Amino acid sequence: MKYDAIIFDLDGTLLDTLEDLADAVNHALSGCTTVRRSMDEVRSFVGNGVRTLMIRSLPGGEESPYFEQAFASFREYYAAHCRDHTRAYPQIPELLNELSARGLKLGIVSNKSDREVKELNRAFFGGLFPAALGERPGVRRKPEPDSLLEAMKELCVDKSRTLYVGDSDVDIRTAANAGVPCVSVTWGFRTEDFLRSSGASTVIHSPLELLDLI
């Protein structure tokens, strides 16, 4: 095999979290504005962490006098409801079982909060990923390479034998900044045209296609 480890983004790659994120956004907005965001709008806003999601969702962003209130409301609501509608994408369980059977080490690196990354790892994958890292204080989030490099360290793998899999331009840049190859997926939150224009070199359209690349 070409790789010893496969590290995945979470939202839009392993799990379809969009409806729960949209519900949390609109719950937060309901406390301070009549604006509501559609699923398509929320899809276009995700990828750079939940604070940025709320900056993009709330009119006026961080300049709004209601921003911190809305952000706190989002975090509280999402922590309690992050599994209401979230599901693994089709073929993801089969893919992970096959990767594990082949002896590959598995990780998650996400801009979602670290607490929720670990909760979703337990809830949907039974803790299958020994390295599951999210946004934490004092650690630069993607596209900075910090968490991806930390995950490789936890898995005891070299970057030359590691593959990163994600659904966004942020993931493409994260992999490049860490010095690892990236596979971009089209079943998540971004289109193939967008991914190609963002520098994607390898694109797959269903999870099991990944097996042909490793």
Summed over residues and divided by their number, the pLDDT gives a mean of: 96
How much β-strand is present in the residues? 15-25%
Could you say which structural class the secondary elements and strand pairing correspond to? alpha/beta
Number of helices: 9
Order of helices and strands: EEHHHHEHEHEHEHEHE
CA gyration radius, whole angstroms: 17 Å
User: What is the approximate shape?
Assistant: globular
Q: Roughly how much helix do the residues carry, as a percent range? A: 40-55%
From the N-terminal CA to the C-terminal CA, the straight-line distance is 6 Å
Task: Count the domains.
Answer: 2
In total, how many beta strands? Answer: 8
CATH homologous superfamily placement of the largest domain: HAD superfamily/HAD-like
Under CATH, the topology of the largest domain can be stated as Rossmann fold
Instruction: Give the spatial strand order of the biggest sheet.
Output: 5-4-1-6-7-8
Query: Main β-sheet: number of strands, strand sense, barrel status?
Result: 6 strands, parallel
Low-confidence stretches: none
Kindly provide the name of the CATH class of the largest domain.
Alpha Beta
What's the architecture of the largest domain in CATH terms? 3-Layer(aba) Sandwich
